[in-house]
Amino acid sequence: MHRSFACAALAGLLLAAPLHFAFAKTSTMTDTANTDPYLWLEKIHAKRSMDWVHRENARTAKRFADTADFQHTEQQILEVLDSDARIPYVSRRGQYLYNFWRDKQHPRGLWRRTTLADYESAQPKWQVLIDVDALGKAEGKKWVFKGAQCLEPDYNRCLVSLSPDGGDAVTVREFDVATRQFVKDGFELPTAKSQVDWIDKDHIYVGTDFGPGSMTESSYPRIAKIWTRGTPLADAKTVYEGKPTDLAVSAMHDRTPGFERDFVEVAKDFFHAQMYQLKDGQRIRVPIPDDAQAAPHRQWLLIELRSDWTVNGKTYPGGSLLATHFDAFMAGHGTLVPLFTPDAHTSLASYSWTRHHLIVDTLHDVKSQLEILTPTDEGDWKRQAMPGAPAMSTVSVVDTDPDHSDEYWLSVTGFLTPSSLQRGVIGEQPAKTLKHEPAFFDAGKYSVSQHFATSKDGTRVPYFEIAPRGIKHDGSHRTLLYGYGGFEISLEPHYSGSIGRAWLSRGGVYVVANIRGGGEYGPRWHQAALKANRPKAYQDFAAVAQDLIHRGVTSAKHLGAEGGSNGGLLMGNMLTTYPQLFGGIVCEVPLLDMKRYTHLSAGASWIAEYGDPDKPDQWAYIKTFSPYQNVKAGQAYPPILFYTATSDDRVGPVQARKMAAKMQAMGYSQAWFYENTEGGHGAAADNRQSAFMHALAYTFLWDQLK
Prior knowledge:
Layout: H1 5-9, H2 26-35, H3 47-65, H4 68-82, E1 91-93, E2 96-101, E3 110-115, H5 116-119, E4 127-131, H6 132-139, E5 144-150, E6 157-163, E7 170-176, E8 181-182, E9 188-192, E10 195-200, E11 203-207, E12 223-228, E13 237-241, E14 248-254, E15 261-269, E16 272-279, E17 282-285, E18 293-297, E19 300-304, E20 309-311, E21 314-316, E22 321-325, H7 326-330, E23 337-340, E24 346-353, E25 358-364, E26 367-375, E27 381-385, E28 393-400, E29 407-414, E30 417-425, E31 429-436, E32 446-454, E33 460-468, E34 479-482, H8 497-502, E35 509-513, H9 523-527, H10 535-550, E36 559-564, H11 566-577, E37 584-588, H12 607-610, H13 616-622, H14 627-630, E38 640-645, H15 654-665, E39 671-676, H16 687-704
Parallel strand pairs: 34-35, 34-36, 36-37, 37-38, 38-39
Antiparallel strand pairs: 1-2, 2-3, 3-4, 5-6, 6-7, 7-8, 7-9, 10-11, 11-12, 12-13, 14-15, 15-16, 16-17, 18-19, 19-22, 20-21, 22-23, 24-25, 25-26, 26-27, 28-29, 29-30, 30-31, 32-33, 33-35
């Protein structure tokens, strides 16, 4: 429940019809057309563009994928992704546990369910609800499953989201779980970045592409409506209409018995929103700061702060979590109780309700700590520590049953610790491991350590290093440095059989940099690299690279870097600003043209993170970290691989296309490009495509760093 509209944008919250040119301003188009000879590549599906893509794909595949080494690596990764021994993670809906599963026989996946008793057995019996492969074959579509929202309390009717190409835009169709059939003449929306929520069996809230002007400039729903079963969508009743400059508008209904409420949330940008309660025909503002996040639950309201907030003479620091009684707070006299207050080393990662308790997940120098909080009749909160993760590991709550029980499910994972899934019931049963992922590589050969690099301004930047035991610090080791650094997203320890097999088992060193812009130390860590301060994230990443070289773990010619999306922008800046530190770079689904990014796909939604390049005073600093504008001929750039997807309707493929084309025209023959046709922003629609993408990245880097 940690705020992350950005990478729920970078993961699914940013929802709208795919746009090739999202509300481009004529003056900008004209100015750019006069200076950008690669503007034609922005026409995503045009024949000329796709011919170029196919030529580049063939060139890259011939060089890196047409080898026995690549094929071995791809197969090693695919075995992990398709393994039947993986954990089938579940979410509870009533008496059933639901799971979505992909494997070799079902590349597009199965949406299925089972009971707890069956799940606890070694071989659970699953009831398949939707076979996505069979559905696609029957309908002549390459469907990608994007989730389902089911109506409480019986969960027999669900709104299923299916993407035709893996992008964020989805078709929404009503599904009857009992008959395992889509409902004839039920609720159905054509492909768009829609937002839906059940009110009751015959009514839903809907935000979608209702026609011209109904989407925001960021390409998400601008209007929220109530749609009644059996009536045309055109007759749906408007409950809120936002502005074109808003990020997105959504409406939701809380069906908790005794606490039924309706809300509208108006996201102004990724980090500012306004929540309104809909009550007795009125819209009542939830009175919290725009950059705070409100989470109503039963009689409670939790408030997560991103900046300091002074109430009745008391200041609560940004990064705090506060609790109050919902009705009293809305009436203007609620008491705020701090549940979590950050310090220099500790931040809030997430929180999850059970029926009677709140589980709070915090990070202490990017390592997990869990605590159970219980409200008392006296108005305070009792605290109880939960067992922590093993060293250098992550424990997180993956599911609870907040309306009915104190059940909770925990994921335990670490760089060298295969993931496990635990279930417990607070006050009744301690957490017990139900499922355990197998070891996909021999972890005994490696060790995990945490280090701190000193950035340009003196800030200590943590990073995790996974390396062979007894490593000699002679600068000879191929090292892969991964980073993201944006949108308050934290990079925590996690187990990856793919990385273990494709990188560590070859003798490589793997490093994760927790640079500013992320959420590892809460809002302050993120805000330290916003807009004009964005280069601080790049200075942090460069500092980690320099520290690895200084410590003798690696040397520049053996050091590679990888990042995607906002991390792709990070990679672009490593290329143009710190090329001397790297022997190879992989840049995936990236932002790169920061002059045009607000006019491409969903780019307008990220102005709060980077700034508005159409405003001269902001372009003055944005241009300092815009790789597409800063790349120059005649430089000693390391080899770079750009990887993207035609169907990416979030960042889009065109920035990677233009950067590769521009570099090649400058004479950089080591600028490589590959574009998958499916998969959206994840650049892969199934396990085989994922295996190909990762194998290409690891093969490229291993080759360049020799």
